[in-house]
Amino acid sequence: MPDSRYIGRFAPTPSGYLHFGSLVAALASYLDARAVGGRWLVRMEDLDPPREVPGAQAAILDTLERYGFEWDGPVARQSTRNDAYAAVVEQWLRSGLAYACTCSRKQLEGSNGIYPGTCRDARHSPENAAIRIRVPELEYAFVDRVQGEFRQHLGREVGDFIIRRRDGLYAYQLAVVLDDAWQGITDIVRGADLLDSTPRQLYLQELLGVAQPRYLHVPLIIQPDGHKLGKSYRSPPLSAEQAAPLLVRALRALGQQPVAELSNARPADVLAWGTAHWDAARIPRVATLEEASL
Ligand code: GLU
Ligand code: ZN
């Protein structure tokens, strides 16, 4: 059923090049949008200049083009959105929902990544401090289209989390929620490594009074040696010559059943086939590269 109200997005971070795992996420978000006649946007999550690899933005967009992806409208860049992020942080600081934290890494050792609330009522100046948002002692839950129900108790499992870093850079959790709302994103399709960020994002959506999108977290791709395929260690960049066979392989990782001849087709034809045959109900919760291979 065509749903022209659907707005999806692919939101790469230019801290590296596209790898097979990011291709799977890009492909799933693209096909899920196009299969219902929806829009598909690309947003460059260039929030963190020190971690940006020079040339990565251009390389990512070039790879997407060579793989046949066509996005709607201009590419949005988070680096142009600092005023919007700052306004929200200011507002939450003023209302007391957010506060400055001066804890050093060393001071936070041993708390298992769950902030113990040390600076909650210390009234530190926001200059030269990280800014954290208070979380409620509540569980946030949602039903993912692939991963099923996911719940997390923000107080016990996360703690007050950072929305602006000490170096002044805005946190992913804040920027992603503001930008998804600003761009009117109805459906978030992304890698399962972000499943456990989602409850924090639901909480921020609630604070902002914005609509909650639908979520579909595509399987993590597990290498035959059991390692997760990701940016944490060097995954090979995607080669342009291999576009069609790698798209076919990505379709298989998503549980789709592409016909073998597609590997010799043009990338745009693979995407057209994928759009016409897209069945999100077939997506597995976890995929290994072996299963996914040609
Ligand atoms: N920029 C994030 C990444 O590349 C994805 C953010 C998202 O899809 O919400 O991992
Ligand atoms: Zn602190």
From TrEMBL:
Class of enzymatic activity (EC top level): ligase
Q: What keywords does the record list, in alphabetical order?
A: Aminoacyl-tRNA synthetase, ATP-binding, Ligase, Metal-binding, Nucleotide-binding, Protein biosynthesis, Zinc
One function term, GO molecular function aspect:
ATP binding
Every copy of the Glutamyl/glutaminyl-tRNA synthetase class Ib catalytic domain together lies at 9-231
Which residues does the annotation say bind L-glutamate? R9, F10, A11, P12, T13, E45, Y172, R190
This entry's comment on the bound cofactor is: Binds 1 zinc ion per subunit.
Q: Where is this motif: 'HIGH' region?
A: 12-22
Q: Does the keyword Aminoacyl-tRNA synthetase apply?
A: yes
Span of the signal peptide:
none
Role of this protein: Catalyzes the tRNA-independent activation of glutamate in presence of ATP and the subsequent transfer of glutamate onto a tRNA(Asp). Glutamate is transferred on the 2-amino-5-(4,5-dihydroxy-2-cyclopenten-1-yl) moiety of the queuosine in the wobble position of the QUC anticodon.
Protein name (record): Glutamyl-Q tRNA(Asp) synthetase
The encoding gene: gluQ
